[in-house]
Design brief:
Layout lengths: L5 H20 L5 E7 L2 E7 L4 H6 L3 H17 L1 H12 L3 E8 L6 E7 L1
Antiparallel strand pairs: 1-2, 2-4, 3-4
Helix pairs in contact: 1-4
Length: 114
């Protein structure tokens, strides 16, 4: 079996994260880009907020609620995400970090590998 290139792995992860977002979160991002950097995988998703979240994010309480809810949803799906990364890369996840900007509608997910 031929070894995957860095670009192929990055593209596969981006596609898998888009599929995950659509199936698990109910809506996919407008754009996703993945970067492999040493023992980290950095995923940047653009356009992740729903129209309702965009309205809610206009107030400080609403923005905080969106951030907390999105982080909790991702944490509850951690096993799914770990399986996705393991399947594509063959590496186990050490930790997962995420944040979302309610101003720009961008989310970042950082996986560190064991």
């Amino acid at each position: 079996m031929q070894k995957k290139t860095k670009g192929q792995i990055e593209a596969e992860i981006s596609e898998a994260i888009i599929k995950f977002e659509k199936e698990y979160m109910g809506r996919g991002p407008k754009e996703t880009k993945t970067y492999l950097i040493d023992d980290m995988i950095f995923v940047r998703l653009k356009g992740v907020l729903t129209p309702a979240e965009e309205q809610l994010s206009k107030s400080p309480d609403g923005a905080d609620l969106i951030k907390r809810t999105r982080v909790q949803l991702l944490e509850s799906a951690r096993v799914l995400l770990e399986n996705i990364i393991d399947h594509i890369t063959g590496d186990k996840i050490k930790s997962l970090h995420t944040d979302i900007s309610t101003k720009t509608g961008e989310r970042v997910i950082v996986f560190t590998l064991k």
